[in-house]
User: What shape does this take?
Amino acid sequence: MTESAKPSLRKKIAPTLYFIIAVKLIKAAVLILLALGVFSLANRDLSDMFDQFLRWVHLDPERNFFASIGDWLDTITPTNVRVFASGTFLCGLFLLVESLGLAWRAKWAIWLAIGESAFFIPIEVFELVHRRPELTGPVRPMFAHPKIGLAIVLALNVLIVWYLLKNRERLFRHHH
Assistant: This one.
């Protein structure tokens, strides 16, 4: 068989896949770093730290708004902090494994990515349909309508699932 007649064993260039991998790697890094930061807070007095932070930024910790946040922080136990940090760390590891699997074009990773992205679609649809936006106070929403951000996330998840399903054979074909 001549050189030109041999089937190409090189993986196809897939910028969209690389973008999905990059986003998942960034999310994994953020979640893992957040978890490590939260773990460091497990045995600290969160209310006292919040009070010190407010004084550092020259805000009055005695104002009702800040006092109610301080009271809420008093209810958080070290166990709550460790559980939150553990869950965040596990989500970060899951995304890390998923993104590395996609980068190596492991066939199991495509199904993991499709399942993970598809998992949130019904939740996002439910939130769009059933939840009323709460616009209270002087805080301006990021978008003109609060549900636009959720609609964008929903559209991205649908596009990711569609792209991965449509291109799974082309992108993840194993050559023996």
